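subagent[fold] <- orchestrator: predict structure for attached chain, return C-alpha cells only, no commentary.
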Amino acid sequence: MNHLLIVMTLFAGGSMLGWVIELFFRRYLDPVERLKKRFSNPGFLVGPCLPIYGTGLVALYFLAQIRIPALEASHPIIHKLVVFLLMALFMTLIEFVTGMIFIVHMHLELWDYTPYWGNIKGVICPLFSCFWYALAAFYYMVMHPRVEAILQWISRNLTFSFFIGFFYGIFVLDIIYSFNVVVRIKKLAEEYNIVVRYRALRSKVQDLAEDAKDRSAAFMLSKFTTNSLRSMFANYRENFSVKRIMMAPIKAVADKVDVTEIKDKISDIRGRREIIKDSDEEASVENDE
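subagent[fold] -> orchestrator:
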C-alpha cells in the first residue's frame, strides 16, 4: 500500500474519530459545556471532522514504527516509554503550532488552557501533554496493530478508496466554506482589536438559535452573514473576546502620527533654545562690563 493512500486514510479516519471523541467529551466531561446539557460541534469546520486529530493519527502511526535497536534489546520497557514520549512531544508540538497559527494570523483562539498550571500562551500545558502521553501509549499498545490490519484490508480492497475520495471532496468544500466564515470573523476581530474565543462564539450562536427556536443554526455559523456577525460583535463580544491584540501593526500607529507637526515642534524647541542661549550670552557680557 503506497504511503499517500496510507496518509489519506489515516487522516480521514483520525479526523472523524477525533470529532466523535471531542463531541462526547464536551457533552459529558467538559466543565462548562456539560452544564448546558447539549451537544455542540467541537471543531471550526461544519462537518464531523477535526483535522488536528487526523494529523495526530498520521504522526502516531509513523512514530510507532521507530526502533532504537540497542535500547529495545536491553531495555524493552524503557524503549516503549521513550517512544511514547516522542509521540507525546510531537502531538504537543502539533497542538502548539496549530493554536498559535490561528491566534496570531486569524485572531482566533480554538481552545484555552490558561486555567491550567504551566500553560504556554494558553495553547499547551503539562496536563494535556500528559493526556497526549497516555493517548500515545494506548495507541501504541492497543490501536496500532488494529490500524495496520485495517490498512492491510484496504490495500486488498482498493474499491474502498472511493469512500476516501468522497471524504476529501466534502472536506475541501467544508474547508472553503468554513474559512470564508473564519475570514469574516478575523476582519471583525481586527476591527474591534480582540482575539475571539471560537468555542464561546459558537456557544453564543447556539444560545441565540435556541432563543429563536431555530435548530438549523445550532451546529454551524451558516446563517450568520457579515451583518449578523457584526451585530453579534457589537452586542455580545464581551462573551467571546479573550484579550486585546498586544502588538498593533506599526503602520497603524504611524498613520496616526503627523510627522510634519512633530518637525515643526522640534524646530520651535530649537529656536527657543537659541533665544535662551543668546540671552544668557548677553547677560554674561553685561556682567563682565
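orchestrator: received. Logging for downstream: The mean pLDDT is 81. Strands lie at 108-109, 194-197, 241-244.
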